[in-house]
Each structure stands twice: as structure tokens, then as C-alpha cells.
Amino acid sequence: MERGEAGSSPVAGEKAGEEEDDFGYRLFPDRKKPPQSFLVRSFFTFHNKCQLMLRMTLETNPYAQLLLEAMKQSGCTVFNDRHFSCENCDDCVSGGFDSATSQIVLCQNNIRQQSHMNRVVTHELIHAFDHCRAHVDWFKNVKHLACSEIRAANLSGDCTLMNEIARFKFGLKGHHQTCVRDRAIRSILAVRKVSKETAEKAVDEVFDACFNDLEPFGRIPHSRTDAKRAYRDFQNRDRYNANL
């Protein structure tokens, strides 16, 4: 299970590393429960609001639209009812990508604003895109997980200036890279029972290559305007390739 944007992350120490790893499923308890009927779910305000915000993101957000188009062209079409699930989660997470089912989990009890939904969906769609285009060993290779977490933090808008200011984090040159590194490490620690040193080493060893892997955006989208340009460029690139 790959974790999305969260408020705070548990830090696993050496003792935790000796225990059997549940791959972060403890943070998503509804994954282990039988699915509820539509009628039952319809009575939960959180669920309805989550579904409405998700639909808004998929229909209007350029980050999500680009990723959906890129996945479709890679042979991995995303369907709302099949590949997204609004569920209750641990308070420290906002979303996750369940690679075992190719499903994005959206934490309906923790996502309250549309802007937050936009970031979480984008973050998890980057994991889904990586899952689609590459043979990612999510469960056994921490470097693979680190790479996707770096890309998700770098390209989803998690580390935009406004988001960092909202977290009371300020920096000058290189702050974006610092934010990406820190958030990737925190995400690994949330879903893997490894030491902080192991997570840091994995991130540092793949950081340069994965930070500079900008597919499918072609640039780091620091704002919605950047994402719109990237989406337009992606569409134009596809039209050009179709005429070759």
C-alpha cells in the first residue's frame, strides 16, 4: 500500500523492523472489510462528499486529466467506479495506492477541501501511472517505492510554495528538492517497517534519477497554470506522433 499526502507519519524504529510488515494496510482498515452496498454508503455524508469532490477533480483538474490520458495511452484506462474507493482511514493519511488491486484509496474522513482532493488524486495517480508503465516491485524493493514517492511528491503539487508556506516551512534555493526528499522519506516510513536510515538511504540512492523523471508532465508543474501547459503540450505531442 503506498501512502498519499498526510499530516504526520509514524516513524518506524529497529523494533518495528523486526515485526512482520503489513505494508501499510493498518492505515486503511476498510480494505479488510466486506464492501458496503451503495444504499448503505449513500447515507454517509463523508462518502457522498468524497465522491463529488473526486468527480470534480477528474473532470476539471489538469494534473489529473493529463495523468488519466497518459495512462489510457499506456493501456491502463482508469474507471471511476473500479479504480477509486472512498474509505475511512487512519487519521495520519489522506490516500493510498493499493497495487494489489490497482485501486486508489481516498480517505473520506480526512479529505475535506477540493484543493486537498486534487493533490491526493494526483499523487496517487502518479503511483498508478508508475505501476502501469514499469515493473515496480512495491513490496520487496524499497528503492522502487522510494522512486515513485519522489516522483509523486515532485509532480503532484505537494511541494508548491503555497503548500509549504501553509505548513510553516520556508526555504530559499533547493527548498523544493528538500521538500520532495522529506516527504518521500515520510511516506516510506508510514507504509514500511524499516528504519529511518534505511528509508533515507533508499531515497538518496535514487533521488537524482527519479527527481528528473518528469513523465508524463515533461516539466515540474509548480502551479495549475503549469499543469495546463503540460497537458496541452502532452496532447500536442500525441497529435504529432500520430502523424509520423
From TrEMBL:
Record keywords: RNA-binding included?
Answer: no
Class of enzymatic activity (EC top level): hydrolase
Q: Which GO terms describe its molecular function?
A: metal ion binding; metalloendopeptidase activity
Which Pfam families does this entry report, sorted A to Z? Answer: Peptidase_M76 (PF09768)
Name the keywords, alphabetized.
Hydrolase, Metal-binding, Metalloprotease, Protease
Q: What is its EC number?
A: 3.4.24.-
Q: Please provide, in alphabetical order, the Gene Ontology terms of the cellular component aspect for this entry.
A: mitochondrion
What family does the entry list?
A: Belongs to the peptidase M76 family.
Name of this chain's protein = Mitochondrial inner membrane protease ATP23
What GO biological process terms are annotated to this protein in UniProt? mitochondrial protein processing; mitochondrial proton-transporting ATP synthase complex assembly
Give the signal peptide as a residue range, or say none if absent: none
Q: Name the segments for region: Disordered.
A: 1-20
